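[audit] Reproducing an earlier prediction to check determinism. Same input, same settings, fresh worker. If the tokens differ from the archived copy the diff job will pick it up downstream; this log only records the rerun itself.
[audit] input (337 residues):
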Amino acid sequence: MSQIILKEIGPVSESVYLEPNPDLTLGPADVLVEMEAAGINLTDFRLAEGTYTERVRPSLPSVLGTEGVGRVIEAGTAADPSLVGRRIILLPNYLQGTWADRTVAPASSVIPVGEKADAHQLALLAVNPATAYGLLHRYASLKPGDWIGQDMGNSAVGQNVIALAHHAGVRTLSVVRREETVKQLLDQGADLVVVYGDGGDDLRDRIADVLGDTIFRLVFDGVGGPVAGALAHSLEFGGQVISYSSLTHTPVAVPAADLVYRELGVRGYWLINWIRTAPRPEIEAVYTELAELVEQGILYTPVEETFALADYRTAFDRARKPQREGKILFHFQNGDR
């Protein structure tokens, strides 16, 4: 039995250790979860390093890991006893850690899911697919045949946007940086893919050319900088650019002429705000729907490799590798208990 513990804020190569005998005492409203699998996100590293956001500060020492899937094996005296034995995903609300054989979490942090879906896919459900779902449902009532534009089309969020949009009949134009990702996204259901290389200042015109008379209902930005502005040029009057991350750490650059004369808006979206404020039935309904789409094979995230918890340093190195072929996970059924 072990957990990866953050002992101090700093690089994970120095700030974490493997605790072999963690305290698993349950509070009245807690449950004890035996983990099946847990994803490794770059956000986890940023959280450990103190570079994520001032709105999330772990109390030290703290179990790390944002998302994962497991099974409730014990419930506190005030928790719902019917959860015991249920397969669940853990909400990415930073109230518990998932990089552990077993972890204690508030009962409010778990969402029951079905038994048939692949554990690796469920372990990656809570952040990127849910972010994509929020982008597609919160800001416009999209109908089959509507178009959305996005940068970071080959990111985990971007691929989930493509999958969910394709399933709903909504069409997508995705901007990517590498030519070799174009076929991959088209095979996944993307309608159009545009490559933006270094110095590609004609991106706005190339997007407009391939769209023809079509316009976007929404634009999703995960990069920052000018790419969202190039997409926004083809956005409908009064439309919105939704920023959900900033890979370049630069502000979204939408030309003033588009903002003023076509009354465009720029909004931010952070999944955690939705989890903290949405009614519980809404949260359960969204994650239940997403889990069912995983079970049906409609949502799928490529996985490059899985690791035992004891091999966490190798797993971290692999997760930081640029241009991976898929996600890196911890799997807790490979003899590491």
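[audit] rerun output stored. Observation attached for the diff report: The longest strand covers residues 30-39.
[audit] end
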